[in-house]
Amino acid sequence: MRTRRGDARRNRRAILQVAGEAFSESPEVVPLNEIARRTGLGRATVYRHFPDRHALAGAVVAEYFGALKEAVDATMNGRRTFRDLLQWVLETGVSMRPLVTLMGELPPNAQQQYTTELIAVLSPPFHLAQAAGQLRDDVRPTDLAWIMAMLTAATDIDAASASTVEAVGGDRNAAIERLLNVILDGLFAAPRPATGQPAE
């Protein structure tokens, strides 16, 4: 019995590892059959752990939240800056586009639950950075949800659009990196003075 449980845990871990890699490497959602092939496990084994791709996506997201909470702890303890943490969060959202797509297929209340949890996890280091003067004081934790949504929309281009960008000499990855830096620089820059008030 213990051996079976140990095998089940190892299989689940292998599936999640391969799924995480697949969600990062491919621009499209990888089917469960392909996940099974990459892990070297039978389809029945994969489906026993995850009956559909949304169940698998939910498990990968749970793994992500575990890593996120560890990163938040490091930030709260001064071992990592909030800018570094936020950059990792935004880069993960961009690189794991298929996962974002799957989560977008969930019912609105389920999507809201994940967004609420994400903001709740990021709020403590957000407020800490703001109190330390590292983060501009006119933004709120809930603004992060808007930033992530806009970044997702900005990087969600189809093959035809990508070809057009490349045809004029554009590099998608380089452009995304610049966009991330623009967003981060804006968040961590001093806010503009109110209308009618001169800048110091």
TrEMBL record:
Entry keywords, A to Z: DNA-binding, Transcription, Transcription regulation
Protein name, UniProt field: Regulatory protein TetR
One example GO MF annotation: DNA-binding transcription factor activity
Lineage: Bacteria, Bacillati, Actinomycetota, Actinomycetes, Frankiales
Keyword Ion transport listed: no
Pfam families tied to this protein: TetR_N
Annotated ranges, domain HTH tetR-type: 9-68
InterPro entries: Homeodomain-like_sf (IPR009057), HTH-type_TetR-like_transc_reg (IPR050109), HTH_TetR (IPR001647), Tet_transcr_reg_TetR-rel_C_sf (IPR036271)
Organism (species): Pseudofrankia inefficax (strain DSM 45817 / CECT 9037 / DDB 130130 / EuI1c)
DNA-binding region: 31-50
